[in-house]
Amino acid sequence: MDHPNYAVIGHPIAHSRSPHIHTRFAALTGITLNYEAIEAPVGAFAATLRTLRLQGLKGCNVTLPFKPEALSLAELSSDRAQRAGAANTLGWSDQGRLWADNTDGAGLCRDLTERAGFPVAGRRLLILGAGGAVAGCLAPLLALRPAHVTLCNRSPEKLRPLLDRHQDLGVPLAVLPWGECPVHGFDGVLNGTSAALGGSAFSLPQGLWAKGAWALDMVYGPAAAAFLQAARDQGASTRDGLGMLVEQAALSFERWHGVRPDTNPVFNELRQIVPEA
Ligand code: NDP
């Protein structure tokens, strides 16, 4: 197989663990594929996708900065992708129509509830960030019926559209400008910012977490250390984004191949390489 039939497309993309994860899923399920990481020049996502399709591409994951464009190119899209305003998974129907989905949020929820065992239903959540990852996760999180969700982002103008797209889902949503995090206890706090990846950290007020609360950073590896340590210092149980990464990949795999891979062996292997910070 010269050309990939599955891929992840982004810019940059060299860091991606998706080829490893999908190749392991394929081995575990007996499926043959050639999954590669493809770097598309900024402004050339659609052209790159067209070329890959002509060469035999059957489906792809999409990452920064192309997720919104991936959704806009698709003829068919899932409700969760529309609410996110972004797609991380593309494929073609039997009729050759491009479809888009977003598995980030469902992947997060699976890891949060099934592997970490963190409760969401009836709990008070705080979500930091309002970028693509948070947008992708909000609808699936709300489907788990938290008591209410507070959203907080450095750039407040990003919060209103996010709120508008999710207000009909029956969970009270509140918005706070950055730096005005209320100093009372949340049962769960999700960090969906890329602050630590950019080398900057933000301070978290004392009393942010309630007793017995949890914290999840969508980032994994050393970049998650500052947030997770601050949470532990306040007594919270912690989780990084490695499980979310593996679970969103498994959901994409299932969309393409109709088979749900066992994620535990792949998660455990990666955990050896990337311990929780
Ligand atoms: P985006 O670029 O779309 O959004 C970045 C977010 O981080 C914005 O809310 C931005 O705020 C905020 N931010 C960036 N720098 C700072 C800072 N110095 N202080 C405060 N806020 C800051 O990225 P994504 O949403 O796609 O990704 C967010 C994180 O989630 C990334 O670290 C990514 O690696 C991770 N991720 C993990 C996944 C997984 O499977 N585990 C899947 C997808 C993402 P502002 O709006 O003000 O710019």
TrEMBL record:
Named in its record, the pathway it takes part in is:
Metabolic intermediate biosynthesis; chorismate biosynthesis; chorismate from D-erythrose 4-phosphate and phosphoenolpyruvate: step 4/7
Residues engaged in binding NADP(+)? D79, G129, A130, G131, G132, A133, M218, G241
Q: Which InterPro entries match?
A: Aminoacid_DH-like_N_sf, NAD(P)-bd_dom_sf, SDH_C, Shikimate_DH, Shikimate_DH-bd_N, Shikimate_DH_fam
Q: Establish whether keyword Ligase is in the entry.
A: no
* Keywords assigned by UniProt, alphabetized: Amino-acid biosynthesis, Aromatic amino acid biosynthesis, NADP, Oxidoreductase
Which ranges carry the SDH C-terminal domain?
Answer: 241-265
Q: Which domain of life is it from?
A: Bacteria
GO annotations under biological process? amino acid biosynthetic process; aromatic amino acid family biosynthetic process; chorismate biosynthetic process; shikimate metabolic process
Its GO CC terms are: cytosol
Keyword flag Oxidoreductase: yes
The text of the family note is: Belongs to the shikimate dehydrogenase family.
Function statement: Involved in the biosynthesis of the chorismate, which leads to the biosynthesis of aromatic amino acids. Catalyzes the reversible NADPH linked reduction of 3-dehydroshikimate (DHSA) to yield shikimate (SA).
The record describes its quaternary structure and partners as:
Homodimer.
Listed name of the protein: Shikimate dehydrogenase (NADP(+))
Species per Swiss-Prot/TrEMBL record: Inhella gelatinilytica
Encoded by which gene? aroE
